Amino acid sequence: MPEHVWHHKKYLPRMYASHRCFDPAKDVLLPPFTSMGELARSVHLAPAEERARTRDILFHWRGQVLWKLPQYSMGIRHQLVTLFRGMEREGVVVSHEHSPGFLAEMRRSTFCGVCPGNGWGHLETPVLLGCIPVVFMDDILTPWEGVLDFSSFGVRVPRRRLPHCGVTNFG
Fold it and tell me: Which band of pLDDT confidence, cut at 50, 70 and 90, is reported for residue 96?
């Protein structure tokens, strides 16, 4: 389990307001609320033939990118979109634009990116949809980490390795 580096000096006043509310030594980070509708869409509850369906998208991430506020995601969302947008033919769907079919895209994906932004990144949706979560956040715990062995269902890629994650590296 990585140690959490609480004080990102450059962004401290805007991100944490100098208040530490989570202590990995005594707390468990829970995921955000998941609706019954989202749970019902879980691939794990689908018939066996649907669970066995081939996934035709290698890597997927869609999310909001606040271009003028890189501290919103520590710049990770910006970097991900800049490096990998427009690679759909290679099986990589990365975009800052919303798609009404984004959940179906995730369900067709082998790997799904988890980036900071509105919280610590949404880990629960890829897991529910049968997509292997790929976390690009250094020194930030994911929900249930410390209780569950994250490496048994997800992948952590150090931020410095993000530019080197070409299509062949995702597989």
Answer: very high
